[in-house]
Amino acid sequence: MTTTSPATQPGGLRVGVQRFGTFLSGMIMPNIPALIAWGIITAFFIPVGWTPNEQLASVVGPFIHYLLPIIIAYTGGTLVYKTRGGVVAAIAVMGAIAGSDYLIAQVNATLPEDNQLGQIHMFIGAMIMAPLAAYTMKWLDSLWEGKIKAGFEMLVNMFSAGIWGFVMVVIGFYPVAWLVNGIMNVLSTAVNWLVDTNLLPLTSIIIEPAKVFFLNNAINHGVLTPLGTQQATDSGKSILFLLEANPGPGVGLLLAFTIFGIGAARASAPGAAVIQFFGGIHEVYFPYALMKPILIVALIAGGMTGVTTNMLFGTGLVAPAAPGSIIAVLGQTYRTDYLGVILSVILSAAVTFIISMLILRASRKKDLEKEDAFAAAVAQTEANKGKSSEALSGLVKNSATTAVATTPISNIVFACDAGMGSSAMGASVLRNKFKKAGIDGVTVTNQAIANLDGTADLVITQQQLTDRAKAQSPNSLHVSVDNFMNSPKYEEVVELVREQRESEA
Hints:
Layout: H1 13-28, H2 32-45, H3 54-57, H4 60-108, H5 123-143, H6 153-196, H7 204-212, H8 216-235, H9 241-245, H10 248-260, H11 263-279, H12 286-291, H13 295-313, H14 326-331, H15 338-385, H16 390-398, E1 411-416, H17 421-436, E2 443-448, E3 458-462, H18 466-472, E4 477-481, H19 489-504
Parallel strand pairs: 1-2, 1-3, 3-4
């Protein structure tokens, strides 16, 4: 187990993109249920849906055009400045929505009726306006904090937020609406060009490595979800929802480790495959790819196969599949597209499996030699020391050293990008281990890295995210794990807490 005390501030482009993606994820993920609800309404009630209903279908347009951008903006504003920031952000995004509609109306006035532009939904506008409105409101409040006469606080607070909300509506109506309409036109043109030239599978070259390095949220929530939602509004479905969510490549990699892997990776791969494929927590396969980065080639090939299959069949989803479980994917599949979607998952898994198998078999002898040599080195060190060592023995399992906690551990937090899927799973696993060990009084929770407030005694993250967790909660102890599902470091955490309790008794 690797535990640290205060850490230096991390840097680098990767961490910056991760942090940006985390903020986008923090705005979008809590509102995925609303997107799913919209997808269900669309799937059933639009004219080409399962059960067309003109009256209920009238909900579809306002839902996607007004409700979703507003609640995304409110969520983003609350991340920055709690409820006050959320309210101002929600006011501000209405300016962007109205400004976009006005611009499109102006353009349509010059176009023939059969070539009219459709509405642009302000998902990206909400992601811009939310932090802008909330941060500026927070800054303005700081200017007169402590300077307001007693009895006038509520008056100032209400009017300052209302007046600044008015200003942000104007800003949203003009520069932001123009900017977002331009961005959406450029992105839509680029995607349409990729589709028309049959080059959309090339996006896997970016998406699959980005997923493994936890950079997928910036792509998924910043680009694919807004564009996919726009496409789904126009045509009832979008292939873009399948670019990142397809569980095929991940399960193909894990099945290859199940059969051709070695050691702990092989032992844990079957359980990881079940969680990834049916639970939709893709993060569980990232460590397997990072163990041997050339395996990313297999993931790219699988991803490209899945996209190509969906292009050939013309398939898509009616709304985002979140989490990326086969259950969620099938639940959001357009009513005539099940064959193509299922084939895309199967074929992408098969291609990833075959290429991963070839890579793992080609390097199997070398991997076994490394594992044997490392174990022998640990044994020799113990022999030189003249006695066995728990710390050294632990190295065989997890190649990490154990530091001593200087303060009692009673509050443990699992942190990941969204604070939902993989961290919730890890927290559940550790809680069960504490329960089996008969240790009470330790709180184990999960949350997004962005929400860490420094109160945790110990923070557990996946290795690629530890730097950000240290920056967010510098005074906590930090544990890096390869896999939230079944890390040997959990046993060390339990043992560390047990030793603390025994020394206090």
